[in-house]
Amino acid sequence: MRPSAKRLPIWSHAGFPTTARFARLLAVYEDVHTLDDAFEPVLIEARRQVQSGLRPSIQVAANWRGRICVDFAVGLEPTSVTAHYLLWSSIKPFVALGLLQLIEAGAASLEDRIAKFIPEFGCHGKESATLAHLLTHRGGFPDSAPEVARELSRLQGNFREALAYVCDMPARWEPGKDRGYHPRSGWIVLGEVIQRLSGRPLYEVIRQQVVQPAGIDADAFALGDPERLSSHPMHVQTLPRRGAPSQAEANLWNADSTLSALNPGAVGISRANQVVRFYRCLLDTLEDRRSRLLGYEMVRCATFPHVVGIQDRTFLLDIPWGLGMHLKHVRPSLDDCGRSATPGTFGHGGHFLVNTAWGDPGKNLAFCALSNGLAPSRDGRVAVERLSQSVHEVVDQLTRRD
Q: Alpha-carbon distance 276 to 267, whole Å?
């Protein structure tokens, strides 16, 4: 870890150099563990974003054709490839895999009603909601309304109370008839289904059934058990800018009570080079049917577009959804996986695109970018897309040479 000896011009959030009047050169700390020469543009893009002040630090990893080609961290503050970052919603596919494993084993079916496993959930119009609805954000009980989001934030230190609150929520639409992203509510229920089906704590199931088989280091992943980590996660910061999350929200994410909470859809902690191992496993299954997490047919099912052609009530976009992941398929809408991603690319962003993680089967490419900087959603979206696109451009150029 060292201050960068090579300093680049400061770049604006729009991606263009600022005027000399406002420009300032900032030392950037770098920890470059792996960076194939051809992938230097990815590091340059990360530097630009950090030097612009958009992100206090960024951690990036990529695995192409089964080999790590990018693994670095840059920041205005000391960081490293072994630093830990909040995953936010990028944790969702890990938890979804826990349920899909149980379905694959015959313990449940995608068409089973949630109330079969959580009877108290089956009320106020949610009775017909199924596990498939849950995984594709069609259950009808999103927590996108401000008053619901505030209450779940207040309750996030107590999983039982949060679950009881969600079970008592009225349906906003008939399950299966519409869709809207469920930031936390859906995965609270999903986590409880896993616990009741397995008879074990959620963090134990995910660690033993997903994290360990994926080859993720034991001290590099946490879901409600941050004491296992080798270091405290990077401090979340926000920009003092219109449209950026408040300092109060940043403080909430930094609180020990948040980090130790069982919040299955929003509070995982890991490293970029570990998250990439998860997506590498899924790509390997699609590539040569090697099965470490799920069998080939279930991975195909999970990464198939189950919902497309309907505007999401939360995002106000038509986002194609697989089972617990969003897809860049026939109709691209969220470009956090890059404009050049192959149709069928699957993954998930975190905190309205502070983070992204995805696997591209067409290019045999897994990628993850994590940060601890909250920003206006548009600025964050553009930044994440540019990081993803930078690795696509290198891979596409190298592929043309083959």
A: 18
Banded model confidence at residue 27, pLDDT cuts 50, 70, 90 = confident
Q: Is 134 helix (H, G, I), strand (E, B) or coil?
A: helix
Residue 331's pLDDT is 53
Centroid of chain to Cα 52? 23
Torsion over CA: 288, 324, 369, 10 (sign): positive
Ramachandran class of 353: left when φ > 0, alpha when ψ lies in -120 to 50, beta otherwise:
left
Task: Grade residue 323 by pLDDT with cuts at 50, 70 and 90.
Answer: very high
How many CB atoms within 10 Å of residue 116?
15
User: 60 — phi, psi (to 5°)?
Assistant: -135, 140
Instruction: Return the DSSP state at 119.
Output: G
β-bridge mates for residue 85, sequence order: 270
Other C-beta atoms within 10 Å of 208: how many? 13
DSSP state letters, 140-177: S----SHHHHHHHHHHTT-HHHHHHHHHTPPPSS-TTS
Structural domains of the chain ordered from first start = 2-87+269-401 (3.40.710)
Element (H, E) at 287: helix 272-288
Report how far residue 299's alpha carbon sits from residue 311's, in angstroms, rounded to the nearest whole number. 25
DSSP code, position 39: G
Classify 76 as helix, strand or coil: coil
| In the predicted structure, residue 274 carries a pLDDT above the cut 70 | yes
Averaged pLDDT score across all residues of the chain: 90
Q: What is the mean pLDDT of residues 14-24?
A: 32
